[in-house]
Design brief:
Layout: H1 3-21, H2 30-35, H3 42-51, H4 57-67, H5 70-75, H6 77-95, H7 102-110, H8 112-125, H9 129-143, H10 147-159, H11 162-195, H12 202-205, H13 219-228, H14 236-244, H15 248-279, H16 288-296, H17 301-337, H18 341-366, H19 370-391, H20 403-424, H21 434-448
Helix pairs in contact: 1-11, 1-17, 3-11, 3-15, 4-15, 6-14, 6-15, 7-8, 8-17, 8-19, 8-20, 9-10, 9-17, 9-18, 9-19, 10-17, 10-18, 11-15, 11-17, 14-15, 15-16, 16-17, 17-18, 19-20, 19-21, 20-21
Length: 450
């Protein structure tokens, strides 16, 4: 790395910390710490929603390098669809609710215990572990630190300003990171295009399998990712930003505009991933983007691109880190102890931040694959909480006394299916764990609905 690259990175870190700590010394109410006073503007809403959606950028590069445009069909298209449905049917209603989190939502509809159990499930969905791992791998590759050191440093840097500023700090830093993530990939595409031919020529340059929507995998595998994308409906980041929006209209419009930015960013990342395959085959797939950038970008521009990668990942770490802290500290620990929420929320959220940072680091070190972390968490947790949450927006009523087994039995089923498949070397009937979990959820709701 050139000294100009370090200059770009150093400037980014200073600016990030300044924005993160800016006005954070001001004592804020808990609602401000969690939802920024429910006054999130449209530009801020769009920037923070777009920036926090791509924390696993190295996984996107890895999948594109290995399977081509399949990446768009499993990591992009399904999320546009469910994001659109969320904007139309859920966003305005969520913004008009008094709840500040999904566990709040469950507590209101099904009682105190259901709120705590749902928080336990949300805890896994909101874990920043996959993104801490991504940043650790990136720092190891570009700077040369050990993975353990890189993970610890990236965790501390991404979460330190949350301690003081909460959601306001997340939004302020996400606006900066939104700009850098687009600038970095636009620069990479421009230089790759200048070094090679137009993107359209990649169709004739690369093997046909890179343009197969399935990427050589089964339709069932593709469909599992499509169903996992229903994660959008129960994504705690979506819920938090929708609840924090200045108005229902801001929430709905913001998501619709964000989908447009996601589409643009997906085109940038998939195209540059295909250039990486065409220009430099037989390299580490997980490092497709930084490897391509290090070979074709001049000093300082390379630094700007790395800043773009750091921004893409760190914007998700701080968002998920805050949500995990809120979930563990406020929605679980505080409520188990049944203390006054208004007087203790911020203190318990900070305790949660420390605990969840520790757990996330352990997960990142124990499962060193970003895509695998996504897949395992999504396949196991989504079947349990998805349908009970969506049912609260319909006229169908679930049995309050049966809600906890309705949440947990599908998760236990998916976990059992997952580990049994590991033991025998394949899943029974080659059926992925997501399906039996979701099927059990449907059956239980059908039996126990009022």
């Amino acid at each position: 790395m050139h000294s100009l690259d370090w200059l770009a990175i150093g400037g980014y870190v200073v600016l990030l910390l300044w924005l993160g700590f800016y006005k954070s010394a001001k004592k804020e109410e808990s609602k401000d710490f969690i939802l920024a006073g429910r006054k999130l503007s449209l530009p801020g809403f769009i920037a923070t929603l777009v920036a926090t959606w791509y924390g696993g950028i190295l996984g996107i590069g890895e999948n594109t390098y290995n399977y081509g445009i399949q990446t768009w069909f499993i990591f992009a298209l399904p999320y546009y669809i469910f994001g659109l449905l969320f904007a139309i049917f859920l966003a305005p209603r969520i913004r008009n609710l008094p709840h500040r989190s999904i566990p709040d939502h469950f507590k209101h509809h099904f009682g105190h215990s259901a709120g705590i159990v749902s928080a336990l499930l949300i805890l896994f969905l909101a874990s920043p572990a996959p993104y801490i791992l991504s940043l650790g791998l990136l720092l190891k590759h570009t700077v040369g630190w050990s993975l353990q050191s890189a993970i610890l440093i990236s965790t501390g840097l991404s979460l330190i300003y949350i301690w003081y500023g909460g959601f306001r700090s997340v939004v302020r830093t996400d606006i900066l990171q939104f700009g850098f993530m687009f600038a970095g990939f636009i620069l990479l595409l421009i230089f790759a295009w200048g070094l090679s031919d137009a993107p359209i020529t990649l169709i004739s340059t690369l093997p046909e399998r890179y343009f197969d929507p399935t990427g050589g995998n089964s339709i069932q595998y593709i469909l599992v990712w499509f169903f996992i994308a229903m994660w959008t409906f129960i994504d705690p980041g979506f819920y938090q930003r929708t609840a924090a929006a200045g108005s229902p209209g801001t929430a709905k419009k913001g998501i619709l505009i964000a989908i447009g930015f996601w589409f643009i960013f997906d085109i940038l990342t998939i195209t540059t991933g295909l250039y990486a395959v065409a220009l430099y085959p037989n390299q580490d797939a997980a490092m497709a983007y930084p490897e391509l950038a290090s070979r074709i970008l001049p000093p300082f521009v390379y630094g700007i691109f790395l800043v773009g990668l750091f921004s893409t990942i760190m914007s998700t770490i701080d968002s998920n880190g805050l949500i995990s802290a809120i979930t563990f500290g406020r929605d679980i620990l505080l409520r188990i102890q049944q203390k006054d929420e208004r007087g203790n929320e911020r203190e318990y959220i900070r305790k949660g931040l420390v605990v969840m940072a520790f757990i996330a680091v352990l997960l990142a070190l124990s499962i060193p694959s970003v895509v695998k972390l996504w897949y395992v968490i999504g396949s196991i947790i989504v079947p349990g909480i998805l349908l009970p949450f969506l049912m609260t927006f319909t006229k169908m009523k679930l049995n309050d006394r049966k809600i906890i087994p309705t949440l947990l039995i599908p998760v236990i089923t998916a976990i059992s299916w997952f580990y049994y498949g590991k033991i025998i070397g394949h899943y029974p009937g080659n059926i992925e764990p997501f399906y039996p979990g979701l099927l059990i959820s449907i059956v239980l709701i059908g039996i126990w609905k009022k």
